[in-house]
Amino acid sequence: MPDDSGPEFGxxxxxxxxxxxxxxxxxxxxxxxxxxxxxxxxxxxxxxxAGVLFLLRSGDPPPPPWQDLGAVEQVGEAREVPExxxxxxxxxxxxxxxxxxxxxxxxxxxxRLESDAGVWALTGRGxxxxxxxxxHPTLVxxxxxxxxxxxxxxxxxxxxxxxxxxxx
Length: 168
Hints:
By secondary structure, the protein is α+β, with helices and mostly antiparallel strands. It contains three helices and eleven strands. It is 24% helix and 23% strand. It has helices at residues 17-29, 34-57, 72-75, and strands at residues 67-71, 78-81, 86-89, 96-99, 105-107, 112-115, 118-120, 126-127, 135-136, 138-141, 144-147.
């Protein structure tokens, strides 16, 4: 009959009780070699060096093909960039760069983008059946706006909701 007076230690399901207690004592009393101390110090040094390198490089501007388009404050609600043929839109809490926007402008009355060709939401989604605007990736870092003019993401599917322009 087993003794239920105290807690049972070790993997008693895999070893006999006496062997499990002896194996536990052996593991606890076995000294760790110097190689374990050296390995843990080296691992700590690697983590510290990687963290320092990350912090030093995290403030760098993005590499080419990203282009600096100026401060976020210069974007305002919308700003044309004719040399890249895009429209920067800062309204709505995020800076977006729409390609081939033509004469599209921000309309404060409707909080949408409008032109003679149609109306768009600030996400570039075409409203009233007009095609959506394609978008270049943008990045805001340290108060500066960067755009990658080499990549182009297609706009979201257009909406068939009937919308009338408020500024045109």
